[in-house]
Amino acid sequence: MEMGFLADVLIGVIIGGGAWYINHLTARIGRLEERINSTRETFIHKDEMSTMMGRIEDRFARLEDLLHRLMEK
Question: What pTM value is reported for the model?
């Protein structure tokens, strides 16, 4: 009778440990998915960046022209 009880306890510990491990993995996968989604929201695409850089360069060119005109006066 004791061997059956020990086998049941051992099987219970193995199943419990496996369940804990699977729960830990699913929680970690969930956290990684959240990080991936936030990364997509945080970073911009290359096309958007080149558009923004073009606008910034245009504004610097206008400032440069303004400074040249002021220095000529």
Answer: 0.53
